[in-house]
Design goal:
Chain lengths: 115, 112
């Protein structure tokens, strides 16, 4: 029972490089999202998806792209990495609209450092 | 959304005592609330949730109370154990799944 799987766990990028953070879930969840967490702060929503082929922006979308070609996968792309994108990134998924019983599950996180 | 700060408030509780962690939310349209526990180096772990049509919900050793009048949420942990030491976040949802607004977080330290 893998749940929400994120790769890589750790990554160091140079300013201007691009990369993709992978997220996969094996629970057949329709809803997936990406959050970033900066030191001593709560999580902030980057992008989310309510189903394959449908994505939308969250609170802090600038500098990131997403796509949802399958139900299982929701990759997050950094187009041109900047030091301000140094953060911990979390992917989350849930079966339906937030309500009791539709638990939102998080991955273990991807630690990204941009130098 | 809520403002966030650089310094987490800390609650120190003796093992065996009850813990109460509080959270103020800002959006009166939020209809679903969740408490998460986050241990160092790990992702948020679901603890308990509550819909806006409820005032109280109980789980195993945990109770969530919701006061919509003052937009306040609390998490009560009974008989706190060392394994409860973590950062606790409340989160609110306005109906779009996986679109959560997180609070600042509270660090719970359990002393022996």
């Amino acid at each position: 029972n893998a749940g929400v799987t994120q790769t890589p766990k750790f990554q160091v990028l140079k300013t201007g490089q691009s990369m993709t953070l992978q997220c996969a879930q094996d629970m057949n969840h329709e809803y997936m999202s990406w959050y970033r967490q900066d030191p001593g702060m709560g999580l902030r929503l980057i992008h989310y998806s309510v189903g394959a082929g449908i994505t939308d922006q969250g609170e802090v979308p600038n500098g990131y792209n997403v796509s949802r070609s399958t139900t299982e996968d929701f990759p997050l792309r950094l187009l041109s990495a900047a030091p301000s994108q140094t953060s911990v990134y979390f992917c989350a998924s849930s079966y339906g609209v937030g309500s009791t019983g539709n638990t939102i599950y998080f991955g273990e996180g991807s630690w990204l450092t941009v130098v | 959304g809520e403002s966030v700060g650089l310094h987490l408030p800390t609650l120190s509780v003796q093992e065996g005592d009850n813990s109460i962690i509080n959270c103020a939310y800002s959006n009166s349209a939020s209809d679903y609330f969740i408490w998460y526990k986050q241990e160092s180096g790990k992702g948020p772990q679901f603890i308990i949730d509550i819909r806006s049509n409820m005032d109280k919900r109980q789980g195993q050793r945990v109770t969530v109370l919701l006061n919509k009048t003052v937009k306040h949420l609390s998490l009560q942990i009974a008989a706190t154990q060392p394994g409860d030491s973590a950062v606790y976040f409340c989160a609110e949802n306005t109906g779009t799944a996986s679109k959560l607004t997180f609070g600042t977080g509270t660090r719970l330290q359990v002393t022996l």
